[in-house]
Structures are given as structure tokens and as C-alpha cells.
């Protein structure tokens, strides 16, 4: 009796239906495969917001293809009555909930990520202390590449319980902060103007964004934070290197002394 009820949920699948299902699956897989290769190639030939928009289309297109394929195939296999759908979804949800709780949670978080957009391909994010560029957003995990060219896979499950730091948030602007640690005996206005000029003359600087110098006085000396934006987020480390090298050269030319102790090794003054 129970067996008859279970069999009653399904249609009689003909050879024509099997062929059609195979064609639908093949076409869906082909579209996803092509999108994951052609769209990144196209994005590499674009810049700024256009590049990020094309990269953001990849996970969205994959979800749409999956949904359309499922809507095509399911009615060919199952008698789509309300009673049948409730029974199948209930049984499937119960089985999946026990067997693949973490995996399904990551899949659901991946779908949420497509619409909430906490990260997109091309974004520079930090998750649990790991910083890198988002290269690919899969159904279960996001693929990042760190500045040291290490590929890291972060499950979307982190979306539920971890802080996600997004440096450019889908845009072409990413702030670079370059630190300088100087001895206290110098003209702060002169150093501030010098560092602003160093950033302004960099070949990597994005001129439409502000250049800001923050001055912090410390027991060991003076801490300068030079904040500016590179033209492309992928240039952030070349930009930081250029600012550091030319900034140090200009400071040495003015005979300005650098702090002898780094902040990590500074002597803590106790009252």
C-alpha cells in the first residue's frame, strides 16, 4: 500500500522523456560552463564598474539556469499535484536536514549571497583574517586568491556567523592606507604636505578620490597614515609599494628621522 502511494507520486517516464531530460541537463551544464569561462574573459577586457558588473552576473546566471532546468524537468517526472509536492518536499527537506545540514546551509547562504551581495567576483574581502580577491562564487563556497597567490575556499556558511569585510563593495574604488613612523622632532605640516604630494604624483592614483593624511602622536614618535585610492583595486599593492618607496626617499631627503621602535615594540609607559 505504501509502495503504491510512493509510486503514485511519479509519472511513467518514456524514452522520449529521458532523452528530453538528458538534453535539458546537457544544455544547462553547457550554459553554466560557458558562462564561467566567457564572462571572466570578457571582464578581463573591461575596467571599473563594467568589469565588476560582468563578474557579478556569473553566480546569478548559474542560479537562474538551475531553477529553469528544475522547472522543466520536475513536471516530466512527478505528478505535480499539491499533495504530491508537499509530500516530496517534506520528505526531501527532512532527509537533507539530517544528512547534509552544513552543506545545505552553505547552499542556502550561497543563494542569499547572490541577492544580498555581501561579496561579488572582483571584490576584495577579508573573512576570518584571510584577505583576497573574490574570483568565483560557487553554490557552496566562494573562491578567493590572496596577495600571495594562494587560492582559499570559504564556505558560504561563514555568512551566518562571521564578519565579512569588503574593501570595495562592488565598486572600482578601494582605499589604500600606507603607514609612516617618524621620530617626533619634525615639522608635521611639512611632512603632511610632502606625503600628499607623493600620493598625488603616483602613476597609480585615482585623482577623483580624496587624498588624506592622518597624524597620530604616540609615545614613541609620530604615526602618519596616508590614505588614497588606486585606479584599479588590483593595483593596490603596487600603489602601496610606490607610496612607501617614494615617501621614504622624500623624507630622507629632508633629513627627517624615522622612529627607532615600531608600534609593536614600543615601550609601554605605566603610570
Automatic annotation (TrEMBL):
Pfam families: MS_channel_2nd, MS_channel_3rd. Keywords: Cell inner membrane, Cell membrane, Ion channel, Ion transport, Membrane, Transmembrane, Transmembrane helix, Transport. Residues 102-168 form the Mechanosensitive ion channel MscS domain. It is found in: Cell inner membrane; Cell membrane. This is Small-conductance mechanosensitive channel. The keyword Cell membrane applies. The keyword rRNA processing does not apply. It comes from Pseudidiomarina fusca.
